[in-house]
Amino acid sequence: MKAFWPRILTTILTALFAASVSLAGTVHGSVINRTSGKPVPNTDVDLLSPTQGMALLATVKSDAQGQFTATNDSIGAGPVLIRVTYQGVSFNGFLPPGRPQVDVEVFDVTKDPKVIFPASHVVIFQPRDGKLIGAEEYNVANDSNPPVAYFRSEGNFDFAVPEKAELKHVTATGSLGMDVPQASIDKGKGLYAIAYAFHPGRTDIRLSYELPYPGNSANVKLPATYSGMRMLLVAPPGVTLSGPGITAAGQEQGMNVFLHEALAAKAALTVSISGVGTPRAAESADGQGQQQGQEGNSRTQGPQVDVAPPRIDDLKWPMLFGLVALFALGAILLSRKQVVVAPAAEHGDASPAQSKKAAKAAKPHAGVEAVKESVNANLDSLKEEVFRLELRKQAGTISEEDYAREKSRVEKLLRDLVRG
């Protein structure tokens, strides 16, 4: 009889293990049209592995109810990107490791340009090796209701670069936080366009170019392709930046920040730039350690003005996976935490004992809020650090070795934050 219960326990554990093995490598999902609120039947669903160079894991079709099932040994062991092509536009979903269920959202596609609204325009200048590097970012909002995606294959977002500028890179960053390189369409006279599907929500369009910088000075004419966008200009210390209507707005992440009111469409702002900037210790061969110390001090001592929303340039998949894991961990912890909310006293006649009891019951809620605030503060700090690191890489002020080392350090910080 004593051996009976161990055998039963062994049998149950074996069955559970077999069931988990049978479920490993299988994902169930659905494709939902958020414009209509209905499932999408008979559409292709591709499962890709970002950690294996976007290798194709499986291709299936949704059934009449929009449901699909895919099987591959790699599913469940790592993150999976799920791609659905609907009305000629790709829509993506994200499946974290260990989750067997996912919904992929798609939207009806429109060609109406009024669907999107470019809300802000950031321009960053960085002298380097006798040239002036320009990096620009457009924050584009799609607040359509009902929600639709905006796309035109011939080009649906225009941007202009200054005269004599050599365009280098154009990327678009959507809700997944992943920079996607874009092919530019040359319309002549410094005007370009990209063909990108703007999903509901926020999209960041980023571009970079090089300008001649003779004598470490230049007059740069910045054309406006859209109206109503407040312009924010950024330059390193030691670089003088001036122009009509430009006002200084302090510093952000050790960079000088300037503001200019929104320009009319097809108008232009001429900016006078001179100087090479304050040399950073990181750019000398023997000053790498000193540079890291200076950066740590600048994060805590330098005056900063919060004049723009955080900008995260080039959030790679490891960062995205870490954030997803962090949010999942937070959700699990919060779901297991019992939060007690004391009922409000009626007519203000609560006794001292009742008040003390209510205050004690509210403490778990306050503790959860404190944890959430701490996590958010750490995430914001990491986001700003990633932004500055990627800005330096784009401007060419950091070597590939230093960039790889700094990026590895930031990713380790994120992993440590996830582990608690």
Which secondary structure elements does this structure contain, and how are they paired or packed?
Elements: H1 4-23, E1 26-33, E2 38-39, E3 44-49, E4 55-61, E5 67-71, E6 80-86, E7 89-95, E8 101-106, E9 109-110, E10 116-128, E11 131-142, E12 149-150, E13 157-160, E14 166-173, E15 179-181, E16 185-188, E17 191-194, E18 201-212, E19 217-223, E20 230-235, E21 240-242, E22 247-252, E23 255-260, E24 268-274, H2 288-301, H3 317-336, H4 352-395, H5 400-419
Parallel strand pairs: 1-8, 9-12, 10-20
Antiparallel strand pairs: 1-2, 1-5, 3-4, 3-6, 6-7, 10-11, 11-18, 13-17, 14-15, 14-18, 16-17, 19-24, 20-23, 21-24, 22-23
Helix pairs in contact: 3-5, 4-5
Describe the fold and architecture.
It is a single chain. The two termini are 45 Å apart. With 420 residues, the protein is α+β, with helices and mostly antiparallel strands. The chain folds into three domains: 25-106, Sandwich (Immunoglobulin-like), CATH 2.60.40.1120; 113-285, Immunoglobulin-like (Sandwich); 317-419, no CATH class. The chain has five helices and 24 strands. The relative contact order is 0.09. Residues 13-23, 280-350 and 355-368 have low confidence and may be disordered. Helix 4 runs antiparallel to helix 5 (400-419). A hairpin with a 2-residue loop joins strand 6 (80-86) and strand 7 (89-95). The strands form six sheets. The protein has an eight-stranded mixed β-sheet, covered by helices on one side. Strands 1, 2, 5 and 8 form a four-stranded mixed β-sheet that branches. It has a four-stranded antiparallel β-sheet with strand order 4-3-6-7, with no helix packed on it.
